[in-house]
Every structure is written in C-alpha cells, then in structure tokens.
Write a structure and sequence with these properties.
- The complex is a heterodimer.
- By secondary structure, chain A is mostly beta strands.
- In chain A, strands 2, 5, 6, 10, 11 and 12 form a six-stranded mixed β-sheet that branches. A four-stranded antiparallel β-sheet of chain A has the order 3-9-8-7, with no helix packed on it. Chain A has a two-stranded antiparallel ribbon with strand order 1-4.
- The N and C termini of chain A lie far apart (41 Å).
- In chain B, a hairpin with a 2-residue loop joins strand 5 and strand 6.
- The chains are: A mainly beta, B mainly beta.
- Chains A and B meet through strand 6, strand 10 and strand 11 of A and strand 4, strand 5 and strand 10 of B.
Chain lengths: 112, 117
C-alpha cells in the first residue's frame, strides 16, 4: 500500500538557520507529492506540490524536488523565520486514488 | 465564505452519545473529503464524495461512522455511540474538480475537535 515516512521530530532551529525535513514515500504508480503546513490553531494549508519526477515545488522560500530514484520529497528552506514555526506534513496522491496519504508530521520550532 | 467551514469547532461528547459534524465546502467544489487526525498524527482518510455520490468510504473505521452529502454541497459526518478512541480532530476538505490524481489543490477546513469522555 501507499505510505509516507517523515523524519522524526520535533525540530528546533534558530532564526536564519537552514531547514531540511526529510520525506520518503512508497506508492504504486506515479504519485503527486505535497507538503502541507499547519500553523497553531489553523487548518492544513497547501505549501507546495510536484506532480511528476524531477519537478520542483516552491513557495514562501520553501522548496522540494520530486526524486523518483530515491522516492523522496525533502523540504528545504535556506533561512527560517520565527513565523515558520508550525507542523509540516508530507503527503502523496496516487493517480488511481481519491485520497491523500499523509506522513505523521514534523513539528518545527524556530527561536529568535 | 471563502474557505471550507466546519462546525462545531469543539465538541465534548459523553461515551455512547451520537454526534454530527457539519462541513460547508467552498462553493462549487465537486469533491469533498473527510479525514480523522489523532493527536500527534497525520490525517487519515475516511471518505470521499464527488457531488452527492459517496465514491469511497473505505476509510470509515466502523459502521458507527456515517457520512452524507445529499445535495452535493454541505456534508455531515455522523458518529453513533461514540467511544473514547473516536477522540480526534475531524477535517473536511474540498477541491474544485472531480478528477483525481491530477495534483488538484485540496483545501482543508480548520477541523472539528471531538473529545469523548
């Protein structure tokens, strides 16, 4: 079946540090890949997505590249801010399915 | 409203009580999803509607869970005879098109937080 594995959290960084949150997946077919963010007290928001191999999704300084050979979609940001503190979820959607499969989430805390 | 709206935001139910959770998707959105998110976990798929048709209910954990979308817009998730393990955030989401697997953007509501005591 489909599954998503995220690096274990929580992650604590200082402002302006470099961020990487690892995500690997197992899926049949050719999935679309997503990163969602959940700020405290808010709903899930789509951060970025990539729909085919080698695509790079980017938004708000965050980037992730769809690597089919390593079945990965790692999230990166060059310089984090306090306002980036949130829970980040990696997810996939298969071409034959009607659902998103999520990872367990990674709590990011950025200190000033 | 502009986004997916869910009510109630918070619900405390006594074990054995029935609850109903409402979702107002974004106007015109064909697809509607329900997810269950336990504390500290990622959301888990429950069910999917395309307009009024429930095309996938394979994620519903038991026959105590029932969802409907009779007119293809508002949806209700009903949980009968609630148990403590039902305590979770119930997320509703919608997307514009009915075709899956196209990298459709799915918009989530803020969730209904259910606590069963």
């Amino acid at each position: 079946g489909n599954s998503v594995t995220q690096m274990e959290g929580p992650v604590t960084l200082s402002e302006e540090a470099f961020l990487t949150i690892n995500c690997t997946y197992t899926a049949t077919g050719y999935p679309s890949l997503f990163w969602y963010v959940q700020y405290p007290g808010e709903g899930l928001q789509l951060l970025l997505k990539a729909t085919k191999a080698d695509d790079k999704g980017s938004n708000k300084g965050f980037e992730a590249t769809y690597r089919k050979e390593t079945t990965s979609f790692h999230l990166e940001k060059g310089s984090v801010q306090v306002s980036d503190s949130a829970v980040y979820f990696c997810a996939l959607e298969t071409t034959s399915g009607s659902r998103l499969t999520f990872g367990e989430g990674t709590q990011l805390t950025v200190n000033p | 409203g502009a986004g997916v709206s869910q009510s109630p935001r918070y619900k405390v139910a006594k074990r054995g009580q029935d609850v109903a959770l409402r979702c107002d998707p974004i106007s015109g959105h064909v697809s509607l999803f329900w997810y269950q998110q336990a504390l500290g976990q990622g959301p888990e798929f429950l069910t999917y509607f395309q307009n009024e048709a429930q095309l996938d209910k394979s994620g519903l954990p038991s026959d105590r869970f029932f969802a409907e979308r009779p007119e293809g817009s508002v949806s209700t998730l009903k949980i009968q005879r609630t148990q403590q393990e039902d305590s979770a955030v119930y997320l509703c989401a919608s997307s514009l098109r009915g075709q899956r697997g196209s990298g459709n953007t799915i918009y989530f509501g803020e969730g209904s937080w259910l606590t069963v005591v």
